């Protein structure tokens, strides 16, 4: 089972920002910005590349709700999803990084 499935199952603790039946948002353990939240579907998909479009569609409104909850809608934020080896993906479970709280002038995983 992947590490994010273990978080969904409660085997690994997390700092939850927002949750519903299908999605979970929690704080990144190694933040790249003042606000760094990971947003995942509870169901396992290896990456964005193999996720059904309807799941991405549902995630869109959840991401917007997370931004509201964090209070960053006005100041702005960045959404990133890394895909595969060259995309710098380390955890093979679809996740969007939400970066905010300051000007985020660089990319997650930049060398
Ligand atoms: P990626 O490189 O796009 O796969 O990003 C994986 C992210 O997961 C990294 O930013 C890690 O800091 C984060 N991460 C790994 N394990 C945990 C964990 N147990 N709780 C929260 N974030 C984690």
Verbal overview:
The longest helix is centred in the middle third of the chain and has 18 residues. The protein is globular. The N and C termini lie far apart (29 Å). With 111 residues, it is α+β, with helices and mostly antiparallel strands. The protein binds adenosine monophosphate. The site of adenosine monophosphate (AMP) has 13 residues, from loops.
Q: Briefly, what is this?
A:
Helices cover 22% and strands 23% of the residues. It has helices spanning 3-8, 53-70; strands spanning 16-19, 23-27, 35-41, 77-80, 96-100.
Topology (SSEs and partners):
Blueprint: H1 3-8, E1 16-19, E2 23-27, E3 35-41, H2 53-70, E4 77-80, E5 96-100
Antiparallel strand pairs: 1-2, 2-3, 3-5, 4-5
Bound molecules: adenosine monophosphate.
Oligomeric description of these chains: single chain
Low-confidence stretches: none
Mean pLDDT score = 95
What helical percentage do the residues reach? 10-25%
Ligands present: adenosine monophosphate
End-to-end gap: 29 Å
What Rg do the Cα atoms give? 13 Å
Q: What proportion strand?
A: 15-25%
The strand order across the widest sheet is 1-2-3-5-4
């Amino acid at each position: 089972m992947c590490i994010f499935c273990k978080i969904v199952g409660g085997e690994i603790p997390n700092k939850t920002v927002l949750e519903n039946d299908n999605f979970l948002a929690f704080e990144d353990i190694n933040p790249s910005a003042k606000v760094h939240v990971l947003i995942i579907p509870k169901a396992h998909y290896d990456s964005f590349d193999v996720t059904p479009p309807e799941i991405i569609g549902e995630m869109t409104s959840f991401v917007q709700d997370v931004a509201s909850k964090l209070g960053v809608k006005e100041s702005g934020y960045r959404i990133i999803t890394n895909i595969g080896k060259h995309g710098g993906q380390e955890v093979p479970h679809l996740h969007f990084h939400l970066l905010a709280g300051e000007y985020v002038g660089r990319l997650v995983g930049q060398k």
